[in-house]
Write a structure and sequence with these properties.
The chain contains ten helices and twelve strands. The protein is an alpha/beta fold. The protein is flat and about 60 Å long.
Amino acid sequence: MTTDPSAHQLRLLLVLAEELHFGRAARRLFISQPAFSRQIRALEEHLGMPLVERSTRRVELTPAGVALLPRMRTVVDAVDALRGAAETEAHPAAPDRVILGGYVSGLPALRILVEELRKRHALPEVEWRAVSPLEQARVVLEGEVHGVACYGPMPEGIRTLQLATEPRFACLANTHPLADREALTLADLADQPVIGFPPESRREWRDFWAADPRPDGTPVRYTDQTGTTLEACVSLASLGNGIRFVSESSRDLMPWPGVRFIPVTDLPPCTALLAWSASRPPTHAFRSLLRALSAYIRTAGAVTIGSINR
């Protein structure tokens, strides 16, 4: 029997370090809490030291756990890169083709830029694939696509090219007491429940899109019903089951009956991105697309100037 920890166990600890709650971490990874706890115990036995301090009120990493966390993340990133490389070898794309993923609300900015660039440059062929918001980081890190059009924030291990910035709107039922307002502030929405996020949503992403906590430090109250897709969130809002913040593009894509989209004046804007793996060398075709996009964005006045994060 091996005494080496598995990449799966390391991945569990990374999630636990983000959530600091066994129940939330287990739900995020779709496993039972007892099974999650057993794997963390096994990891501690493999390494011969406690990594987590447990109590009835809180969960914290031990000093050793904190110290080892960057190395664990390096191992997990390397395993993900290996899996992605194997996927690429098993299902190679055409050398002059770029595979881009995205969800309906994240694609407009990139599609517009690609179409504009085609008028001026010989670009590689682009294959578009539908990717749900919950899968966007994974498909990039695991090499299923060369890049993904999305909204930030994105996790570590991913590089991004900023495509555009957009204001955010509150989506709420047209019967809501605030529905007749022309503009709102976060203070106006302080006591309004936000439509829940799936448990596997990254905390950083969820907090940004729920404005949680609010500027005064008040935590957001979530509904029991969750919305995974834009359509589901708008539908729930139309039925009066909470509010959700959405991008301007999402508003334009969803002229849904029974809802209003109202600008929130003190809500920071969101950023449309092209994202790709930092650990996977870009293909020649993807690199040429990045160069063309970067050059165009630097000189275009219609979108916010962007840069490739290094």
